Please model this.
Amino acid sequence: MKIIKNVNKSETTNEGGLHLSQAASIKWLSFPYIIWMIGFIILPLIVILYYGLTGKEDNFTLDNIALITDYKNWKSLLLALRLSVISTLICLLLAYPLALILRKSKMNSSSFIVLIIILPMWMNFLLRTIAWQNILEKTGILNSILRFFHLPALEIINTPAAIIIGMVYNFLPFMVLPIFNVLIKIDQNVINAARDLGANSFQTFLKIILPLSIPGVISGITMVFVPSLTTFVISTILGGSKVLLIGNVIEQQFRLGNWNAGSGLSLVLMVFVLLSMAIISKYDKESEGNSLW
Amino acid sequence: MMTDNKLINLINITKSYGDHVVLDNLNLYIRENEFLTLLGPSGCGKTTTLRIIGGFENPDSGQVIFEGKDITNLPPNKRQLNTVFQKYALFSHMTIAENIAFGLKIKKKSKAYIQDKIKYALKLVNLEGYENRMPDSLSGGQQQRIAIARAIVNEPKVLLLDEPLGALDLKLRQDMQYELIRLKNELGITFIYVTHDQEEALTMSDTIVVMNQGYIQQVGTPEQIYNEPKNAFVADFIGDSNIISATFVEDKLVNILGANFPCVDVGFGRNKPVDVVIRPEDIDLVKPEDGIITGRVTSLIFKGVHYEMEVMANGHEWLVHSTDLFPVGSQVGIKVDPFDIHIMNKPESEDEKAVQLEE
Model:
């Protein structure tokens, strides 16, 4: 015990020494990044905060924030929340089994499948969404195929379903990759140990693989849910003007030159994003205990 | 104590990955309460053998018999044995107590029973009071003890240990060797142990199985393996030794590098090429006129218990361990007691290629 303690101590002091000697050079290296953060993250946030909390005559007001209580705005926020929760769940249900299969498959084929998953990401996001518009349109590819088989045409375009399809398609890789990354790091012997101690494959999944993969699931949810909640491109292209999400409402305000209203609603949306992040990370800590790596 | 009852029987086990044959028609039995060690260099098939017994690997052909029943196709969770893995493989999201309780909870044992077992197991591995710690906060040696505790609470008939001490430092490794012998005696179960460390194998085992390239080279007690290696591979793998090509002149006489040495072996024929093994501690350095052959000391290293010397004699570097000091450059005579010369047949058949030393 004594020996082990001493070893730990010497390691920490050693690390401390490293930090001191490298501190100066690291400071310089971080300089461009600090400028970037100030110029493109912090300043815009301050500008949004300023516009959101002021009226046309630069007077302080909460009217812009209060716009969310407007029935139309509130409805679009709830719809955005509902659609992004649904698409996140669909992504999770599609991605988890896929990540499990990838983990089990041999290294070569798994990297091939990963490549296929990220391949669409090499194409422009807008193009991919417009392609879906072509597929789902009234006279689009899907309905042409249905007509060929004398089946009734589907009216998917300009409905929430079309938006969910667009979200799932665009954001699925962001769910697969973090889950796959966590699963691939689980030592096969840990799984073998569970089997060895009497667990069948379902018990092994429930008690070992699933809890160990929670960090990946959490980051996957974050990476799908947040862009889904704030998107306006997918809903514009696939939802037409019939389905308005909060993102579309904000975009319209800015287009109309109403920066104050747009900023105010953006602040509200930001609060909702932060709230959902807080809920997720709280769940993360509860399920993980202090065993996070 | 070890009995003659065969607990596990491996019959004609063959396993290959692609073109690479890992195990070739392996036959081996393990007795009840035996401490059996599978010993060999990496890639010799020892871990694959263990994984086949544990159920993590299926043999291409052959049978695994456990207490008379064929368990070849049984999954690991249906086998009455438990494994201690090389890098502990603890469940990092569970406390020590939850780790140890894992197998018992699966078997739906009562809470009180599980609590008792956790206490008992932690006491057995000298880690009382660690119930609520997380695995990451423990040292390597402690994690290994927990891995052992987690396995033995399930009261397996056989404990499989896959290089369990490989990741520990030397001192800890030696302590854990005694710990494992104690555990084995207290539990009274069979241990099957895999290692590449010959010293570990000699210290702990009742039986050592020396393997190389998918074949069993020799099965025997540590004494048999050390003193009567069956072939040059075993001799070379177990401790330092002088392995020299020689000619078996007649019964009880062998010609080594041009000089006749009396020995005790008989029945190798007349003027037959053989390999002889002489352990460095069995070579006596004497005055040149008293030796069977003479040579010159070329190097000298103090090793604590003894001096390690190299003596150039008749065109061969003889490795010698002796408590007597002969300085570098001095002329010495070499003498070997007849019973310290061990004679082995040269490898003949295709299969015995595996026996040959890898240079």
Remarks:
- The mean pLDDT of chain A is 86.
- Chain A is about 80% helix and 0% strand.
- Chain A touches chain B through 23 residues (CB under 8 Å).
